[in-house]
Structures
1.
Amino acid sequence: MPSHETMQFLLSLGYTEAVSSGIINALLQNGIPPSSLFTMVKGLAGRYEVGEDGGLEALAASVKLELEKQEGKATVKIWCLPSTGWSPASDEDAGALPTVHSMERAFAVEALEGVTLTDIVNHGTGENSDVLAEYLECACSGIMACSTCHVVIHPDWYDATQVDGEGVVTTNHSVDPKKIGPPSEAELDMIDLAYEPQLTSRLGCRVQVTKELDGLVVLLPAGSNNLMDFVPFE
C-alpha cells in the first residue's frame, strides 16, 4: 500500500511515527491521491542523501509544531537584542563580559518549549520568528558544522559552571535549569570561528528553549563568519 511504503520511507529518514503519520495525513487531506503519495514525498525529500531538502523538512516541522500544541507544550518568550543595544567585550581583557546598554532595542520571540534557536529561525511560526531569521543565517541547518547561528547569552542568564560527571548530559549544558551553561568542546571549536565570540557565546543550534528560560535575553552579533561559502560542493 502507498501509505505503508511512504511511512517506511519517512521512518528511514529519521522522522518519528507520529510525525510521519502527520505528514501522510496532511498530504492526503490536501488532495494528493494515495497512488501519488510516495512519489510526492520522495520529491519533497529532494536529494536527501546530500542534505538538499525539497520542502519535506518544512512540512515535517509544521506537523511537529501542531503535535506539540496538541500535547500542551508551553509557549516561551525570549528577548533578542540586536548589536545596536550591546557592546562586545574588549579583546584586551580576557575576563570581560559583553555590556548591555539599551534593552529598549530588544524584540520578543515566542516559541514552544523544546525547540532550539535554530529551529525557530528555520521553522518558527511564533511572534517575530521571521525577524530573528534576519539576524541568524543558520547555514548548516543545525548540525554544528558552521558558526552562523552564533549568539551571545546575556551574562545574567549564563552559568559557566561545568557539569560534573563523565557522560552526564543536561539541557543547555547547565547545572541551573534557569541558566544557559557553557559550550561543549566541539561547540567551542566552532564558536572560535564565529564573529567576535564572547565568554558567554553559544551556537543557536545548541540552545534549547525551556519553560525555565522564559524571559531569556539573547544578544545578536553584528555579523557572522560563514565558512560554508568557501566549501567546494562540486
Note: The chain has two domains: 2-70, 75-228.
2.
Amino acid sequence: MWKTIIFLTAFTIWGCASVQKELNRGNYSNAVNLALSKLKGKKKSEKDIIGLRDAYQYYIAEQLRKVEQLKLQSNKDSQILSIYEAADNINSSIKPLLPLQDQNGFVTDIPLIDVKAEVAKYKSRVADQLYFNAIGNLEKGGKMEARKAYDQFQQMINLTGATSHLQSLRDEAKKKGTTYILALGEIDSKISVSKAVKERFMSLSSSTLSKNWQRVDITADKRTPYDYELIFVLEDFVLSPEKESSREYIDKKEIEESAGTSSRDNEKIKRKIEVSAQVVELYQFKEAQVKGKVILYDVVKKKNIYSEPVTAAQVFENYASTFKGDKRALSDVSLKRIGGKPIAFPSNDKILGDAVATLKKNMEQQALKAYSNL
C-alpha cells in the first residue's frame, strides 16, 4: 500500500510538473485551472487526472479555512460569498468531467464539496446588508450619499436580479445624486459678430457636457431644480488683415556628377560642381484670435465658484513657389513649397467661425474639469 502511495506521489511530481509547481507555491486556484485545461481534450492521461484531484483537494481545503477565519470577524459576509461563489464555479467546471478516466482505463472520482446552500445563504445576507445601507444613505438626503445608495442598489440587482421595487429605488437614488447644470452662452456686448458666428458659438451640446453624475441642459426645464449655471462667454476677437508678400532667393548646392570614363582603367570619373536655382515665393497669411471665459455659478449660494479664461486661434497660411534653374539645387523646404498656387483668403466669417469653434471645444474641456467633483 505504502509503495503504491509513494509511486503515485512520485508520478504526480514527475508527470505533472506544472501543476505541482503551482501547488508548491500555494497557488491552488491556478493549479486547479491548469489541471482542468489539460483535461479538456479527448485524450486524458493518468498524471493529469491525479493532478486535478490533488489540486482540488488543496484548493477546497484552503478556501474552507479562509471562510472559518472570516466567520470569526465582523462584516465579512461579502468576502465569504465571493469565496463560496468561486468554489461553486470550480465545482461546475469539474462536475461534467466526472468520473475521470484516461485512455488506459484508469478511473477516479473527485468528491466535490457542495457549497450551493452556502452561496444562497450568504447571497441573501449580503443583499440584506446592501439594502439596509442603501436605504440609510438615501434617507440622508445628500448627493454623495445618494450616489453610494445607487451603487448599492445596483449591486443588489446584480446579485439577486432586477425587481420593479429595486429599480425604482435605484432610479430615485440616481435622481437625488445627480447635479443639475444649465449651460448658457453669452457674447460680450462690446463686440459684434455675424449671425452665423453667433450660432456656432451658442450651439452647445448636452451630451458633450454631461457626465455620469452631472446632467447639463442647454434649454431650461422648469421642473428641474438647477444647482449651477455654466456660462460660456465670448469676450473679444482680433482679425488680422490679409497679408500677402513675395520674395526671391537663390538656393545653391555642391553636387557630384559624372565627367566621363577613364580610358586607362575604365573607371567613372566624377567632379564636383555648384548648381543653383532662383526661387520666387508668394506667402499668404490671415489669423483670427478669440478669447473668452468659463464661469460656473452656484444657484443656491448666488455666486461664481469658478471663472477661467480660455483662448483659441485660427491661422490661414499658404505658400506658392516657382523656380528657374537646376532643380537639384533646391533645399528640402523649397521642394515642399514648389508647385503651390495662390488661393483665395477665407472670409472673416469663415476664419472667425473656425476660431470660435476651437474656442468652444477648449471651453468644454475646461468646464468638464470645473464640475467633475460636484
Note: Residues 121-177 form one domain.
